[in-house]
Design a protein that fits this description.
- The complex is a heterodimer of chains A (367) and B (500).
- Chain A has nine helices and twelve strands.
- By secondary structure, chain A is α/β, with parallel strands linked by helices.
- Chain A folds into three domains: 74 residues, no CATH class; 57 residues, no CATH class; 174 residues, von Willebrand factor, type A domain (Rossmann fold, 3-Layer(aba) Sandwich), CATH 3.40.50.410.
- A six-stranded mixed β-sheet of chain A has the order 9-8-7-10-11-12, sandwiched between helices. In chain A, strands 1-2-4 form a three-stranded antiparallel β-sheet. Chain A has a two-stranded antiparallel ribbon with strand order 5-6.
- In chain A, β11, α8 and β12 form a beta-alpha-beta unit.
- With 500 residues, chain B is α+β, with helices and mostly antiparallel strands.
- Among the domains of chain B are: 145 residues, no CATH class; 113 residues, no CATH class; 77 residues, no CATH class.
- Chain B contains 20 helices and ten strands.
- In chain B, the strands form three sheets. Chain B has a five-stranded mixed β-sheet.
- About 1% of the residues of chain B have low confidence.
- Classes of the chains: A alpha/beta (367), B alpha+beta (500).
């Protein structure tokens, strides 16, 4: 019996896959589709193919509901079910399922055929986390499990004969009380830090930064899926580099010249001081238009990378966005001097559509 | 198959249901796991249906929402004799009992409701036949070909006339004697005694008028179809230039549409009826002390409303209860309606005791539209806090618009009429004497979703193989959309022009 649906399901997925390839590009490109909801839920539409019918243009035409409220009270109609039998609701054709970032990353991984990352670090260290899925007989009142407590009380009263069918009053005593408790879950700990660096010099316009924003979101999702806990650091630089928070990273205004080595020095400092490379998986992503101030500085960059960064970290990705002002020379300098280093990945991102391939290039090594 | 425990529950509940005079088809229960349940739900309950990606899409949706905990299917029952019902393996005892009672009530509804009287009661077999036929066509004509054709058919699957199975066709016996060979009626003249009186006795105006009338009638007779046809699918099956296998596929899809139509027409009643009875049977006869809390939990979950939408289970059940109460107390009829004393009305009690009989009558004769039209009262709306909501452009939200009884009823009836679908009729199958198809949308205040309508027209063009026109109203003006192929080198061209 189960064979039958597999044929149809497979067929559907095949059709969608043809669609998804383009659609996924669109997800990546149209960043507003990355609707973050709650703590780490995103809502993405479950692929549905619409068969057109003659229908009323009923969008936003309202309907009939039930409940309290004065006139003008908003009713929480966020999502309609795609149930054609509902009868009293306009049909909604895209079912949005809120999925975890993890699931999203998994889909991304499948789509881009990304290999899983082999983590390094202290595999013996276990960390404990837990879910409130256990029941104990002692605990704080705030965690009391009302239903279980009630059942215990009922059991006791029935056994002891104090339960009265006619007047069923249940009074729990201390022994009946049950509490939710944390159940420890062991997890191997991998320490991972991801450092994003962005050139915010005058030549990086808002379009260039949008590309960086979209690309780093997807990279971030993927790495978070691969590692349970992850630390991220953000560095912006023009002629000088400074460490900023995520918000600033994406919002800071552009100005000034470009001295890339300033960022690499700060990066090295952060690693040395806070994230010793023996214990940490380090990922670095640097986005720039490749228009460095001077050749001397470029040489300094190469030196820093070659001697003190590339040997120690998992991956150093340099993504060069195209800007009308930049020469893009930095890319070729890196390619010439460090092209065969395993931990260095270079990628050019001329426009938003190239984000897809760039991510694939960066993460395809599975390091 | 059902375990011994479950068998006992089934027997017990069946017995109780009979005691309440529910009259149902035998029910075959199958206990299945959630994967099978999801799969069967994707095929809307039928284990064997023709192959199509749409069922895979349903499966994707159902199994995803199951695995994210958004939705769980406890039970499914199909209108068939015997009825087939699926129970989810691993449900608690009390869940199963509730569901079993629910299923018997559905089966009773299927068997007795007038609108179901014309449905095929051997649909399980019929669906399997369709599956076999389609798979043979696939073998013969290729997967893509057949699937593509099914896609086209599906986009017009709802263009049926839900009343047509009940129409008793009167074949008019007409006399050909009075007609001449052209099909015209002879013009009646009075005999004039003298030639010079001819113009007075048979005035030329009148003769001319008669001739014209007879001509008009002839044109009308030649019109094809004679009167607008709402069963567009039937018209196409009969008249479209299709390959035989295509005609067969189209008529299969039409048959399935007619099978499902009564279920969509009686959703509120059917679910309400089932909820009414599972509640009655369980609370009065079945539930034990230890089960009452879990029962209440499940029952409340079934009836829970979400803000801004009507739960058909709840609305239906409450209406049945309201009807029962009113007919028990005699709260109906002229005397009650005309009473102006609110207090007296509230306490009205003439001990009629007709409630039970009345609800059985209602379940036999009504569908959702007539059910709401007749039994939704102002008191009921107030008591159950119904409202209409509308979209507010300035706040970008849906807001409660009104609690006015008339508006609520109007809105509900509109949403239920023709299952909420627009009514499309075939006006002319030989439009402009060029064999083109002319359809009209019966505009009832709401416009068509245009981009979709255009897509459907393109699909219909592929079926009809000649230009297809659709007349509808946009912004208060009548417009005609045309799908024609080949011209200007494009596959299908959509044009529109203003009629007036």
């Amino acid at each position: 019996m189960s064979l039958r649906i597999e044929q149809d399901w497979g067929r559907f997925r095949e059709i969608v896959r043809g669609k998804i390839k383009q659609n996924l590009r669109r997800y990546i490109v149209r960043s507003e589709l990355i609707g973050k909801k709650g703590k780490d839920l995103v809502s993405i539409p479950v692929p549905q193919i619409e068969i057109p019918h003659f229908v009323h243009a009923l969008e936003r035409s309202g309907g009939v509901g039930q409940g309290d409220g004065d006139l003008g009270t908003p009713v929480g109609i966020g999502e309609h079910e795609g149930d054609r039998h509902a009868g009293n609701q306009p049909g909604e054709h895209i079912l949005e399922v809120e999925i975890t970032l993890e699931e999203l990353a998994r889909i991304l991984g499948e789509e881009l055929e990304l290999p899983n990352i082999e983590p390094r670090g202290k595999k013996n260290i276990k960390s404990f986390s837990g879910k409130y899925s256990d029941i104990h007989t002692a605990g704080p009142e705030s965690l009391r499990h009302a239903k279980r407590t009630f059942k215990e009380a009922l059991k006791r009263q029935i056994i002891s004969g104090s339960y009265d069918n006619v007047d069923p009053v249940i009074i729990p005593v201390t022994e009946d009380k049950r509490y939710k408790a944390r159940e420890p879950v062991e997890q191997p700990a991998f320490n991972t830090v991801v450092i994003y660096m962005m050139d915010v010099s005058g030549s990086m316009g808002s379009e260039q930064k949008e590309i960086v924003r979209v690309e780093s979101f997807w990279i971030d999702s993927w790495l978070r899926y691969q590692y349970k806990d992850i630390e991220t650091k953000y560095i912006v630089h023009d002629a000088v580099a400074r460490e900023v928070d995520r918000d600033t990273f994406f919002r800071v205004r552009e100005s000034g010249g470009t001295i890339i080595s300033s960022a690499y020095k700060l990066f090295r400092k952060i690693i040395d001081e806070r994230y010793p490379h023996e214990e940490w998986n380090v990922y670095a992503f640097h986005f720039s238009d490749g228009d460095n101030w001077s050749r001397d500085d470029t040489h300094e960059c190469i030196e820093i990378l070659e001697e003190s960064l590339l040997p120690w970290i998992n991956l150093f990705c340099y993504g060069q966005v195209e800007s009308p002002y930049g020469s893009g020379q930095f890319y070729y300098d890196l390619e010439d001097h460090l092209g065969e280093k395993e931990t260095l990945v270079l990628s050019k991102i001329p426009n938003k559509d190239a984000v897809y391939d760039s991510i694939k290039k960066f993460l395809a090594k599975g390091r | 198959m059902a375990s011994t425990d479950l068998k006992q529950h089934i027997e017990e509940i069946e017995k109780r249901a009979h005691e309440y005079e529910l009259d149902f088809f035998d029910v075959v229960f199958e206990v299945i796991d959630f994967e099978e349940m999801n799969m069967l739900a994707s095929y809307s309950g039928f284990p064997v249906r023709y192959t199509h990606w749409r069922f895979g899409m349903e499966y994707e949706k159902i199994s995803k929402s199951y695995s994210y905990g958004l939705h769980k299917i406890y039970e499914m029952v199909i209108n068939n004799d015997p009825a087939y019902a699926y129970l989810l393996k691993g449900n608690t005892d009390i869940d199963q009992k509730l569901v079993i009672a629910h299923v018997y009530a559905h089966s009773d509804f299927f068997k007795n409701n007038f609108w179901f009287s014309v449905t095929n009661r051997k649909m399980l077999n019929e669906m399997a036949n369709h599956a076999v036929k389609i798979s043979r066509y696939i073998d013969k004509y290729g997967y893509e070909e057949v699937e593509g054709f099914v896609d086209i058919c599906l986009s017009i699957e709802d263009l049926i006339d839900i009343h047509s199975p009940f129409i008793k066709r009167q074949f008019a016996v007409k006399s050909f004697l009075e007609e001449d060979e052209d099909g015209r009626k002879p013009i009646s003249k009075l005999r004039s005694p003298n030639e010079y009186l001819e113009d007075y006795i048979n005035p030329p105006d009148f003769i001319e008028w008669q001739r014209k009338k007879s001509e008009d009638e002839k044109i009308k007779k030649e019109k094809f179809p004679e009167s607008p046809k709402r069963d567009v699918l039937f018209f196409l099956v009969e008249n479209a230039e299709l390959e035989e296998w295509q005609r067969d596929v189209l008529s299969m899809i039409r048959e399935e549409s007619y099978y499902y139509a009564p279920q969509m027409q009686t959703r509120i009643m059917n679910e309400g009826w089932a909820a009414y009875w599972h509640s009655k049977i369980l609370t009065e006869k079945i539930v034990t002390d230890t089960e009452i809390i879990d029962y209440a939990d499940h029952h409340a979950g079934t009836l829970a409303g979400r803000a801004g939408s009507i739960n058909p289970y709840k609305l239906g059940m409450e209406l049945f209860r309201d009807i029962e109460d009113r007919w028990n107390k005699g709260k109906f009829g002229k005397e009650y309606e005309e009473c102006n004393d609110i207090e007296a009305k509230r306490k009205w009690e003439v001990k009629l005791g007709l409630g039970r009989d009345k609800i059985f009558e209602v379940r036999r004769l009504y569908n959702d539209v007539t059910f709401i039209d007749e039994f939704l009262t102002e008191d009921f709306c107030r008591e159950h806090k119904l409202f209409t909501y509308a979209y507010n452009r300035s706040t970008n939200m849906y807001e409660i618009e009104s609690r006015d009884f008339k508006k609520i009823k109007e809105k509900l009836l509109f949403l239920l009429t023709n299952c909420g679908r627009p009514i499309i009729e075939v006006i002319d199958g030989n439009y402009m004497n060029r064999g083109e198809l002319y359809l009209a949308h019966k505009h009832e205040g709401v416009e068509l979703k245009l981009d979709w309508a255009k897509d459907v027209l393109k699909h219909m063009f592929k079926l009809w193989r000649r230009p297809v026109h659709l007349e509808t109203v946009i912004d208060g003006k009548v417009r005609v959309f045309t799908a024609d192929g080949g011209k200007k080198g494009k596959e299908v061209e959509i044009e529109s022009f203003l009629v007036r």
